[in-house]
Amino acid sequence: MITWHKSSHSSTNGGNCVEIGVGESAVVPVRDSKDPHGPALIFPTDAFSAFIDGVKSGVFGDI
């Protein structure tokens, strides 16, 4: 079963936010929090971890 968690920025920028699903060992689903029954993007866990590491280290600039 997937448990969904909203972004820490959910209440900023007019509510444009995403939810991250946890509970699947090999993938990380990401969906629009305003459309919980809509589609989700599915990322391999290693690719999603690399993305998070890039955000934390500033690779993408000021997000």
Short overview:
This protein is an alpha+beta fold.
Structural features, described:
By secondary structure, the protein is an alpha+beta fold. The protein has one domain (3-57). 21% of the residues lie in helices and 32% in strands. The chain is built from 1 helix and 4 strands; from the N terminus they run E-E-E-E-H. The protein has one helix spanning 45-57, and strands spanning 3-6, 18-22, 27-32, 40-44. The chain has a 4-stranded antiparallel sheet with strand order 1-2-3-4. It is flat, with a radius of gyration of 12 Å.
Please supply descriptive tags for the structure shown above.
63 residues, alpha+beta, 4-stranded antiparallel beta sheet, 1 helix, 4 strands, 32% strand, flat
SS-based structural class? alpha+beta
Radius of gyration: 12 Å
Biggest sheet record: 4 strands, antiparallel
Strand order of the largest sheet: 1-2-3-4
Average of the residue pLDDT scores: 87
Number of helices: 1
Overall 3D shape: flat
